[in-house]
Each structure stands twice: as C-alpha cells, then as structure tokens.
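User: Sequence recovery, please. Input:
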C-alpha cells in the first residue's frame, strides 16, 4: 500500500474525524498538489481556515477550477451531482431511477455518505430498500416525484423503509415535499431500527396532528419544515 493509499484508508476508517483529512492535506502539499490540500483545509470545520469568512468563496473557486479532476473515476451522468464535504465528494444527488440503473457503480464509491434521491415513487423506493446498501451511507433524503403532493405515491414504501433493518445505519432521514399518511408516520414512530437517528425531517403538507406519535418518539430530533 502506498503512502497515499494508507492516508486515504485512514480517512475512510474514521470519516467523522478531521485529523486524517488534514494530515492528508499536508501530504498533498508536500507532493505539489496545493489546490487539493488547500481545499480540504478550507472545508474542514476544524481546519486552519475555520474562522475565515472568505473560506467558502475560496473553496468554491478551487472546486470550480479542479472539479473535473477531483471527480475523475466517479460515476458521471448529467442528472447526478456530487457535493464536496470536508474535502471529499460525500453527497450524491440523483433521480432514484438513475441510482437503481447504475447501482453497483454508485454503491461502490467509498466516499459517499449521503444520498439525496428525487423523483421517488413507490416501486423504485421498494427496490432501493431491498438492495444491499453501502454501509457508509448515513444520510438519506427522499423527494417524491408525483404531480400531486396529496397523493399516496410514497406511503407504502415509506412504511417498508421504516421496517427495514438497513435504516439502522442512518443518522439523518429527510422526507421532502409530499404528504405522509398516518399509517406511514406510525410505521416510522414504531420502527425498532431508527434509534440511531440524530434527525428525522418531515417537509410537506402532512397534517400536524398526525405527527404526534413521531414527536413522542423522537422529541427534538424531529424537525418539521
């Protein structure tokens, strides 16, 4: 294993710790890859630029200049967008059908920690829940794809999601821009697999009284948008 491979393995082994990332940034500087090193330091909240008000703009400038090189080797599609966090492409935003079509390619990306899936309907979500997940996925956002926000496009699949042991690995679960029926909300409230959630966010026109079981279960971890 090369020095760089060992440094990257250390980051993957402890993805919540900035220290291995900053050590890697030092190595990058020593090997003439100054833009990448600076970018990692700028994005790390404990890095030397943590209190620099210009850090975000500078990081955006570096990303614009180098994005193509830094994403080399990752699945590239017009509808898929990679977001850098703390120096690495950790968030994937894509239609759920695209994820399913290229599932193995997306699932093997070691850096991905969050999925923002849109155009989500019942059958594709059931398909997603039934597949083996990358164990590094800890954030999941689901945005419905139906034309009517009051329709039950996602409720049966949301219930299936709540019953899946795979959701144990999630820290955040976010439902965006649709109505969740009472039975789906109750399934989330009763799920034995969601104790590790740090945030459950519900955005849409779900009736407030329906949220009482979730509020009782999750307390301040429930965020209603």
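Assistant: Recovered sequence (225 residues):
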């Amino acid at each position: 294993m090369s020095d760089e491979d060992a440094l990257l393995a250390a980051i993957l082994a402890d993805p919540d710790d900035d220290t291995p990332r900053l050590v890697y940034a030092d190595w990058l500087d020593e090997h003439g890859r100054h833009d990448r090193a600076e970018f990692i330091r700028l994005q790390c909240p404990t890095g030397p630029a943590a209190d620099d008000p210009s850090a975000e703009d500078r990081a955006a400038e570096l990303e614009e200049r180098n994005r193509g090189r830094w994403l080399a080797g990752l699945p590239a599609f017009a509808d898929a967008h990679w977001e850098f966090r703390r120096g690495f492409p950790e968030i994937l935003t894509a239609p759920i059908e695209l994820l399913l079509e290229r599932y193995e390619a997306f699932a093997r990306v070691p850096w991905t920690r969050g999925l923002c899936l849109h155009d989500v309907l019942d059958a594709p979500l059931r398909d997603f829940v039934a597949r083996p997940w990358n164990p590094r996925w800890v954030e999941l956002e689901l945005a419905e794809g139906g034309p009517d926000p009051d329709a039950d496009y996602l409720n049966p699949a949301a219930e299936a999601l709540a019953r899946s042991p795979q959701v144990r690995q999630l820290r955040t679960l976010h439902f965006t821009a649709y109505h969740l029926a009472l039975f789906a909300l109750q399934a989330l409230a009763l799920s034995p697999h969601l104790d590790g959630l740090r945030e459950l966010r519900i955005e849409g026109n779900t009736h407030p009284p329906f949220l009482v079981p979730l509020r009782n279960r999750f307390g301040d971890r429930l965020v209603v948008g």
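The first strand starts at residue 81 and ends at 85.
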